[in-house]
Amino acid sequence: MAHDHNSKEKVVYVGDSRVKKYKKNNVPLDYSAYPGNSEAFVPNFLLKEWMVGSVFLVGFMILTMSHPSPLGYPADPTKTDFVPIPDWYFLFLYQLLKYPYTSDAFVVLGTLVLPGLLFGGLMLAPFLDTGKERRWYKRPIASSLMFLSLFAIVFLTMVSWQGYQHELEELNIIPEHIERAEKLEAGLEVPGGKEEEPVAIVNKESEGYDIYQKSSCISCHAADLNGAVGPTLLGIGDKYSKEEITDIIINGFGNRMGPQLQQNLDAGLTEADLDTLAVWLAEQKAPAGEEAPEEVTDTK
Amino acid sequence: MLKSVYNWIDERLDITPMWRDVADHEVPEHVNPAHHFSAFVYCFGGLTFFITVIQILSGMFLTMYYVDDIVNAYKSVDYLQHKVAFGVIVRGMHHWGASLVIVMMFLHTLRVFFTGSYKAPREMNWIVGMLIFFVMLGLGFTGYLLPWDNKAYFATQVGIQIAASVPILGQYIETFLQGGEIVGAQTLTRFFALHVFFLPGALLALLGGHFFMIRKQGISGPL
Q1: Nearest 5°: phi and psi at B141?
Q2: Confidence (pTM)
Q3: Which residue from A49, A149, B78, B133 has the least number of CB within 10 angstroms?
């Protein structure tokens, strides 16, 4: 039906397509119809506006070039002494959870109720503040609630940041991204930058290797020692001595690994076997000249 | 030449009305800083959009080098920062732009609030604007993890813990964000997908709605 040019059709198409022919009935009003000194967006206003954009961009690029973005050390989930800090615009929500009536038993007040009131109120502002008046000083309730919220946000953000600074000072911690930047500046080596060569299994012909294959260790540390659920045991001799390894087998490792002695005895290994195993594991060291991967070394 | 190309396309697609809708409108005196300097407060929305464009462009360049797995994420950022030509600047633009876009959006929100511009008939645009605000916060939260350094890792861990403490919904949010028992490989790929596909998609759709409504309703009148 789009193909014939019957002028009695209500909708007229361009050519043989389905694009409607434009009836010039939505031409905007002439600017003289508007009060005041209005001007055309294109090109008059845009030609001035791009200069504002350029000035803004120059400022932005100066900030970017003078302050390279921070980068700390690679994430280490086993680290326990790291002081977590969110990005600055989440600080007020983070700080909110540190007060008695917004934490522990009342935590739902801090996570849901107060932020819900704040953001819900903001979201529904057009339906709560329905008067015709638009000037802020003629809308005392809306404006004072906004000023109060602003004050609370600024206050909580500042308290949170000062608390963080204070905590760092007390624990004598330099934030990692600052420490790393300083080290790079001084030409020192930083962790995580270079490729880490996996350490090979040492003395595979040993009796210890055969015992390892029979032990309960392989269920978490894998038959090739490279780790599965548990961490890798390659190069473990750089971290622990034979005595320490024996202690870990017998007593477990913190809350991440339970005692393994009984399981291995049940599996038919003897205490002497486990001793041989511990000796063999203590031999698992990186070739001379290389440090254990976790060590931070200064080259100068 | 250019004119004839335009005419050739216009004949077939009738693009002149679209062009009129997008660009051919007037700027009232009360929002024009050339007439009243105090009208610079009306620039915040435009600047927010400007930084958003910077974020999208710089983010596109970052994904040329970034690898979203836990072994290589940090290394790729490190490489980008120290080895790639202008990498430090592109990453810097994305890093500082992320903060600046929040600042500008906040100022824009305050301008709209204190001029009462959210009142009828512009309620829907205010709500869409608030949704854009939340999407931006989501982009900030998901983007914070991507460099995979300790600061990123532990902030995300705490963030997810806080979300998990929400009654009833908490555990579902935790599973959705974390994807596993701990903040790990799954979390990183999820955050990456959210940060570069889901949230920007939502953002562009919302921005489209925001701008469509502005064009349709015009800027709010003088106080």
Answers
A1: -65, -45
A2: 0.76
A3: A149
